[in-house]
């Protein structure tokens, strides 16, 4: 039988490599920087920008609770991870020629195709994500999880995504060799290639058998148990509420680049710089989150992340209402410099949220019920994934300032709830 410690190095390296390559690929179609500009080629609606951002993650979360009952009866989860990702990446690859063929002649087809294909792709990603989380819990001991997630982000959402940012900047430059739609065809192809390689790497993980639930649970059975779990496990209930409220940053995430583009006139190629800034924030913060997780616990990570995160929408309101004329008078470099802190903080706090909330969840979830706990959490976060779409509706009907204010209020509520979290022993 495989032992956890015996294969720890092998599994740790494969997990970090998986995260590095997958995040590298994901950076090319980043929902906060690249996708809003891409969608603007097909629609001028903020609602469509928000919807596109939502579908990139909603399916991933929503699919996981239905998988819980199936996974709890399986000692090995890797086969589910593999087959779900095969379908997922086949769909991503299918969009590349579709974009090349119809972007100019049938732009509305491409917009509808993007929403549909990536929504279904994210659902299969969620089917893969549930077994992935359980495999990590089985193969990476608790004391190594903070550094494990931090290193995945450091290399993938960090170093390699900085490279992705500059590649995107070059491809989208007005004097680039790649005009529309070839520039985005190349971006989506690179994204799919790197994500595929990352998934293949993790297919070689050495998974030990896990504890199998003695009770067979159908999806309705799992759903019926959710209220009881939330009533009986107060610490988990507070964690879930805190995480959903913290996801309120999502109301505004796609619209910082929209603000920069529409109000301050930044060019499409500058999006690559914003992606680089976001990635630098992830890189700089990741090792801090990993060390803090190991030394002070994940409750501290969560609280510190939220305290920093609330500054993002407040700073955007400051730029939009207090100093816009000063920034516009200087133009170019000052606009880029003024928006750099937003994307630095987005990168740093998103990675911190992932390390803190994910590690805290694995700490509090009982081993035999872990898929259910993960499923409840991710289904709740799937609902929260529609916050960008709701933010887009609000932006179209009111103004971007209303979206930033709503994010700030939601994060403040999360800070209040986080004070009642108890660090697991």
User: Rg, please?
Assistant: 21 Å
How many domains is the backbone divided into?
1
Order of helices and strands: HHHHHHHHHHHHHHHHHHHH
Cα distance, first to last residue?
28 Å
The number of distinct helices, counting runs of at least 4 residues, comes to 20
- Give the name of the CATH superfamily: MFS general substrate transporter like domains
CATH structural class? Mainly Alpha
Relative strand content: under 5%
Largest sheet: none
Overall, the morphology is globular
Poorly predicted segments:
none
Q: What is the β-strand count?
A: 0
Which structural class do you get from the secondary structure elements?
Answer: mainly alpha
CATH architecture classification: Up-down Bundle
Q: Residue-averaged pLDDT, rounded?
A: 86
CATH topology: Growth Hormone, Chain: A
Give helix % range. over 70%
């Amino acid at each position: 039988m495989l032992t956890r410690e015996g294969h720890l190095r092998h599994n740790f390296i494969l997990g970090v490599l998986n995260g590095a390559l997958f995040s590298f690929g994901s950076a090319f179609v980043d929902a906060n920087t690249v996708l809003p500009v891409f969608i603007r080629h097909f629609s001028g609606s903020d609602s469509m920008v928000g919807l596109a951002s939502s579908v990139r993650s909603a399916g991933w979360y929503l699919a996981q609770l239905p998988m819980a009952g199936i996974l709890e009866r399986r000692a090995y989860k890797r086969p589910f991870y593999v087959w779900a990702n095969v379908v997922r990446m086949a769909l991503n690859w299918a969009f590349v020629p579709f974009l090349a063929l119809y972007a100019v002649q049938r732009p509305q087809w491409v917009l509808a195709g993007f929403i549909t294909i990536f929504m279904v792709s994210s659902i299969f990603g969620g089917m893969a994500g549930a077994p992935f989380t359980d495999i990590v819990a089985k193969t990476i001991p608790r004391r190594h999880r903070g550094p494990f997630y931090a290193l995945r982000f450091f290399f993938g959402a960090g170093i390699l995504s900085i490279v992705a940012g500059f590649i995107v900047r070059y491809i989208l430059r007005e004097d680039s060799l790649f005009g529309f739609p070839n520039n985005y065809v190349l971006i989506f192809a690179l994204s799919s290639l790197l994500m595929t390689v990352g998934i293949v790497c993790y297919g070689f993980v050495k998974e030990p058998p896990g504890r199998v639930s003695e009770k067979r649970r159908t999806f309705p059975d799992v759903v019926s148990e959710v209220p009881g779990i939330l009533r009986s496990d107060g610490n988990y209930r507070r964690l879930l509420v805190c995480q959903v409220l913290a996801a309120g940053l999502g109301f505004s995430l796609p619209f910082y680049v929209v603000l920069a583009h529409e109000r301050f006139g930044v060019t499409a190629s500058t999006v690559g710089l914003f992606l680089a800034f976001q990635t630098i924030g992830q890189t700089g913060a990741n090792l801090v989150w990993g060390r803090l997780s190991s030394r002070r616990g994940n409750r501290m990570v969560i609280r510190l992340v939220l305290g920093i995160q609330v500054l993002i929408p407040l700073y955007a309101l400051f730029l939009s209402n207090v100093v816009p004329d000063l920034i516009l008078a200087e133009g170019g470099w000052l606009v880029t410099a003024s928006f750099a802190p937003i994307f630095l903080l987005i990168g740093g706090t998103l990675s911190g949220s992932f390390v803190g909330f994910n590690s805290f969840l694995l700490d509090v979830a009982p081993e035999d019920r872990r898929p259910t706990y993960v499923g409840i959490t991710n289904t709740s976060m799937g609902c929260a994934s529609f916050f960008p779409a709701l933010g887009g509706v609000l932006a179209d009907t009111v103004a971007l300032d209303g979206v930033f204010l709503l994010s700030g209020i939601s994060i403040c509520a999360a800070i209040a709830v986080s004070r009642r979290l108890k660090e697991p022993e």
